[in-house]
Amino acid sequence: DTAVSQTPKYLVTQMGNDKSIKCEQNLGHDTMYWYKQDSKKFLKIMFSYNNKELIINETVPNRFSPKSPDKAHLNLHINSLELGDSAVYFCASSQDPGVGYYGYTFGSGTRLTVV
Amino acid sequence: KQEVTQIPAALSVPEGENLVLNCSFTDSAIYNLQWFRQDPGKGLTSLLLIQSSQREQTSGRLNASLDKSSGRSTLYIAASQPGDSATYLCAVDHMNTGFQKLVFGTGTRLLVSP
Fold first, then answer.
1. Neighbour tally for A111: CB within 10 Å
2. CB–CB of B74/B21 below 8 Å?
3. A15, A35, A51, B60: least CB-packed within 10 angstroms?
């Protein structure tokens, strides 16, 4: 009955590789997000999708490509991984503001280590 | 540009103390404010959500207040326990060109000693 689930939980890979992180939410929320938590523990938004449409792209390098096949799924594909991509990536979802709004729900995170 | 600041950055208290964590934000155009807890190596757990029309929310020993006009929120923890040790994150749901965007503060690392 996990609300927002991400896989994998840990990902260790070499520089130059391509990898994907998957996210699924069963809350019926309209909007999904990817956040990055850097080594200083600061959380910053990368992308958001509303009903499968990209609505926010926070000047993230083109090597990062999100894909939303339906409003319950948001995946993140990263090409040509670099050392600086090492971080924890969090998926989140939220309902549109209004009746029944309960804020944002986050997944447990994917710790990506590039070696 | 919305900026969120949390003070103090770290706090160490003995068990049983009441404590206050502070959060300030620069742009009052927010949908709501949410407090999270993050344990080391773990995800984010939502503690309290205060919608923009509300002044405070309470859950158990936690009470959060919101003063939108002055750009401030406080999280009050009563009778602190060692299990409260974690990083507490304040985040504002900011209106960004008509779309929601959660902007996080830098966090307060809390240690409650037995």
1. 16
2. yes
3. B60
Higher pLDDT: B6 or B98? It is B6
Contact A57, A76 (CB under 8 A): no
Q: What is the pLDDT of residues B50-103, one digit of tens each?
A: 988 899 999 999 999 999 999 999 999 999 999 999 999 999 988 766 677 899
Give B23's contacts in chain A (Cβ within 8 Å): none
Q: Using the beta-carbon criterion (under 8 Å), do B43 and A101 form an inter-chain contact?
A: no
The CA distance from A42 to the nearest CA of chain B, in Å, is: 6
Distances (CA, A) of A72 to B36, B46, B95: 23, 20, 23
Return the DSSP state at B55.
Answer: S
Smallest Cβ–Cβ distance between A43 and the set B46, B93, B104 belongs to: B104
As a whole number of angstroms, the distance between CA A102 and CA A29 comes to 10
Q: Which helix (H) or strand (E) holds B2?
A: none
- Which amino acid, residue A72? A
Write the residue in B43, B96, B102 that is nearest to A108 by C-beta. B43
Instruction: Measure B91 CA to nearest chain A CA, in Å.
Output: 10
SS (H, E, C) chain A: CCCEEEECCEEEECCCCCEEEEEEECCCCCEEEEEEECCCCCEEEEEEEECCEEEEECCCCCCEEEEEEECCEEEEEECCCCHHHCEEEEEEEECCCCCCCCCEEECCCEEEEEC
